[in-house]
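Technical note accompanying the year-one report. For the benefit of new consortium partners, we illustrate the data format agreed upon in the data management plan: each record pairs a sequence with a structure-token string. No post-processing was applied to the example shown here.
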Amino acid sequence: MASLLKTRHLGKSGPIVSPMGVGTWAMGGPFFSGEGDSLPTGTALGWGKTQDTESIAALRYAVENGITLFDTADCYGAGHSEEVLGKALLTSRDQVLIATKFGNTFNPQQLSLTGTNVTAKYIQKACEDSLRRLQTSWIDLYQLHIQGLSEQEIEVLVEALESLCDQGKIRYYGWSTDQAELTSQFLNKSRAVALQFDMNVINDAPQMLESATYNQCAAIIRSPLAMGFLSGKYHPDTKLPSNDIRSNPPEWVKYFTKGGAAKTSLYQSLQAIREILTSNNRTLVQGALAWIWARDSNCIPIPGIRTIEQAKENIAAIEHGPLSGSQVEEITDILAQFHNNHDTDS
């Protein structure tokens, strides 16, 4: 069964990639909402302090051990994540695929988000700025990073992205969204190959997965470890630093409460399925990734890392392969029964 995890396709017409990628949000370091952003000014949007040398070592370890897809965004760390990724992959650029995102505006000096912009002129500039920070002449996958757009805005966006493809600045494009509406309009060209969305064993996303299948594009799975919650390290009494997004979570951060505590109901649900996830000597992390692969063969999880140790644990999950169909069904039944008997909002 593990042999099924050798490679994945980025959509019907895209390149072959490893069955798992690497997310680099945390590597950007601290950044915050600023004037013009939708969140209150000063809201932490990063994952606290990081060490660039440690990040670069982890990224290079991933490359050396077969990972070929690396995901970032221009706004992570207000540009810093792209810079770190560019340095790490400078000597292995031809061996890997870089995916980044656009749509959020930011101030690099103040480490703050300042709003959104999806005009054709801005997209052109954002792409060129990302190329500079990444120290590359092309981006393999360029992804829209905002939601709530009109059909007219999407039409303009697609035209701008097709132009970037024609210019050779990007090779393919996709959309990072948790809303299935309008995805078919966005993904109706041959160079639109990926849909990125939040999905994990305690937060399934059947509509998004169905949309990816319908549009014949890859399902790139962000938050496959529920922002670290599925590692088992976080408890209902956990405290996190104030510069970590999980300590004062926006509405869309589903797994933590104020201060950085894991939601009690989710913590209890994880305990209910722990034995299945850790079957065959898997760690919780490896079990959570195994569920993703079992959920659909089109899925490419992109767990975030900060250290070589995290990269090792994630990559070792590939050798274990996916959970069995019966294990997935058992997890589904256990969680359904749990949700029927508990308040899942706390």
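Partners are asked to follow this layout when depositing records. The radius of gyration is 19 Å.
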